[in-house]
UniProtKB/TrEMBL annotation:
The keyword Signal applies. InterPro entries: Acid_Pase_AS, His_Pase_clade-2, His_PPase_superfam, Histidine_acid_phosphatase. The keyword Transcription regulation does not apply. Keywords: Hydrolase, Signal. Belongs to the histidine acid phosphatase family. It comes from Corethron hystrix. This is Acid phosphatase. GO terms for molecular function: phosphatase activity. Residues 1-27 form the signal peptide.
Length: 442
């Protein structure tokens, strides 16, 4: 019979082994694309290190929206055990957005209450259903997305408001109502729920709102989605179709797509996944993986980025197929597609530098006197950021798909004192997800 001491020892050893067993403590690993909290917190904006006195005058912030549902009801895959008809389970959400009607001009003054309407996509009953099968809107920002953009707002707050480096401070108060003038901020995005909610969440995190019961209306500059050049669109610019065709017919593009490695992946999509396609597979994989949803067994082998798993190989090739088009022929496609957005950005920079010969803005006081925005937000998509990155130069961006809630920052500084290292009285710095890109630009 086992002694009491032996029994206690074995119990202790079993408990110790349970605690030390890698299988029991291993956390779920996610692609960087998912922008989980540990990744988001690593994207802080580094301080400027310069011996030459500088003064930050303007910051343009271009973001990708946060995590979302699939943007369309596309087919993903079909395999033994998959859920028809799209191969993925329905998506259910708590709410999409809250809306309100503006005051009617015929309403009497006084304390008129507001009715806020919460959009809930639950009006249909089987067999009729929403496109994603549940109560979510296609492309809807989900909880992770809100949390990601909250972190982005805090990063910007720490960099441009709470910073101890006064030459980088754009505002001396975190309260939105304390901004020095109305046009000091400008918020821009396209007319999609995920971009609007991402921008709104970031701004709410960046600034504090007074709690005295006053309603603050924040202008959000947008346009009809089909004609908004915040992303590439062949309807706006048909020439993009020709440039895309040139890229996909290039020797390099054709050679890779017919390589032995890619043909193996093609076979997985066509045979194992019942006709999955490269156009949708990236979104299928990431919306499922980032939310701990079911993935076909043959692709459920991800351990970490670059691990040569089938998951990573499929995702990497899907990324390459799109980003190659953006980078081909000295980024011709991207330069044409993003020309209107660059023109929009440069128009605000030109307001700042207008006059020349010392007559441009040199201080934040000058910016206020000229009524020029100092912080401008553009809430867009992965297809906003990636072509913008491609236009910066061949060796600036490695072609990796922009993760959820990615952030590109373009800062413009006044050079306070003459310095031969600077060829202008203004200097720019560009940061992408916490990495300074400016030294790579030639």
């Amino acid at each position: 019979m086992m002694s009491r001491q032996t029994s206690l020892l074995l119990t202790f050893l079993s408990f110790f082994l349970f605690l030390s067993c890698p299988m029991s403590t291993r956390s779920i690993q996610y692609p960087e694309y998912c922008s989980k909290p540990d990744v988001m917190k690593s994207r802080f904006i580094p301080p400027v290190l310069s011996e030459t006195p500088l003064q930050l005058l303007q910051a343009h912030i271009i973001i990708r929206h946060g995590a979302r549902t699939p943007y369309r009801d596309y087919f993903c895959w079909s395999y033994d055990g998959s859920i028809p008809p799209r191969g993925i389970e329905p998506w259910n959400c708590d709410g999409v957005s809250t809306i309100m009607a503006p005051h009617n001009s015929s309403e009497n003054g006084g304390d008129v209450g507001l009715l806020l309407f919460d959009k809930v996509y639950d009006a249909l009953s089987p067999p009729v259903a929403n496109k994603l099968g549940g109560t979510c809107l296609t492309g809807q920002l989900i909880q992770d997305g809100y949390e990601q953009e909250y972190v982005n707002g805090r990063i910007l707050r720490e960099t441009y408001i709470d910073t101890k480096k006064t030459f980088m401070q754009l505002f001396d108060s975190t309260r939105y109502s304390d901004r020095p003038y109305e046009r000091s901020t400008r918020f821009r995005g396209d007319d999609q729920q995920r971009t609007l909610m991402s921008g709104q969440t970031l701004v709410k995190s960046l600034f504090d709102v007074d709690t005295n019961g006053t309603n603050i209306i924040v202008p959000y500059h947008t346009a009809d989605y089909p004609v908004d050049p915040i992303k590439p669109d062949t309807l706006i610019c048909p020439k993009l179709t020709d440039l895309r065709d040139e890229a996909v017919k290039s020797d390099e593009y054709v050679a890779r797509n017919f390589s032995e490695d890619v043909l193996v992946l093609e076979n997985i999509l066509s045979e194992d996944l019942g006709g999955g396609n490269w156009r949708n597979i990236m979104d299928c994989l990431m919306t499922q993986k980032c939310n701990k949803r079911s993935i076909p067994p043959i692709l459920d082998d991800f351990k970490h980025d670059g691990d040569n798993s089938f998951f990573s190989r499929v995702a990497e090739h899907a990324s390459w197929m799109l980003t190659y088009i953006y980078r081909h022929n000295n980024a011709a496609y991207s330069k044409l597609a993003m020309g209107p957005l660059w023109a929009e950005i440069f128009s605000f920079m030109s307001e700042m530098t207008a006059g020349g010969n010392g007559y441009g803005a040199r201080t934040l006081g000058d910016m206020k006197k000229k009524d020029i925005p100092v912080l401008l937000l553009y809430s867009g998509h992965d297809t906003t950021l990636m072509p913008i990155l491609a236009t910066l130069g061949e060796n600036v961006w490695d072609g990796t798909w922009s993760p959820y809630a990615s952030m590109l920052v373009i800062e413009t500084y006044a050079v306070v004192e003459d310095d031969p290292k600077f060829t202008s009285t203004y200097a720019c710095r560009i940061i992408y997800n916490g990495a300074v890109l400016t030294p790579k630009i030639h």
